[in-house]
Amino acid sequence: MNNVSVRFMEEKDVEEVFEVERKCFTTPWSKESFLQEIKNELAIYVVIENKEKIIGYGGMWKIVDEGHITNIAIDPIYRKKGYGDKIVKALIQVAKEEKINSMTLEVRDSNEAAKSLYEKNGFYSCGVRQKYYEDNGEDAVIMWAEFK
Fold first, then answer.
1. Catalytic site residue 118?
2. Distances in Å between the alpha carbon of 66 and those of 59, 61, 128, 132?
3. Do residues 92 and 128 lie in contact, with contact meaning Cβ atoms separated by under 8 Å?
4. Mean pLDDT over the full length of the chain
5. CA distances from 122 to 7, 24, 74, 95, 144 (A)
6. Of 83, 118, 119, 132, which residue is the catalytic one?
7. Whole-model pTM above 0.70?
8. Which of 33, 82, 85, 145 has the most CB within a 10 Å radius?
9. Which is nearest to 74 in space by CA: 124, 16, 33?
10. Which of 97, 106, 112, 119 does the annotation list as catalytic?
11. What are the angstrom distances between the C-alpha of 18 and each of 35, 42, 119?
């Protein structure tokens, strides 16, 4: 894991980020969505890359003093190696630097690995959005972390 770095996403990254997105989600965001997010002053996106390519990304929206994690994705062949944890920690660090006091997200109820990752980083479950996901009607667990 020493050969990876996390940095802010740039326009030149969109093609590779889209490939990760496509591999990870049944209803992926478009390339245009990522381009819009990079230009959005309230959006903060990071990528994790090894020497050859981008292997994952994560993003959040800054809403006053809260951060809302939009997506975190790691290429399936690089999962279970701690890269998702690096992304979450990077977003938390940026949030603190931006004077964000708390963060929230929604995660699929069935995604035990993601829920565990978020809990390890200080997030806790505080509710459910029923039938949140359009692709299969699955519920989303609402999670929060506070930094005060």
1. yes
2. 13, 8, 19, 21
3. no
4. 94
5. 22, 24, 20, 14, 8
6. 118
7. yes
8. 145
9. 16
10. 106
11. 10, 20, 27
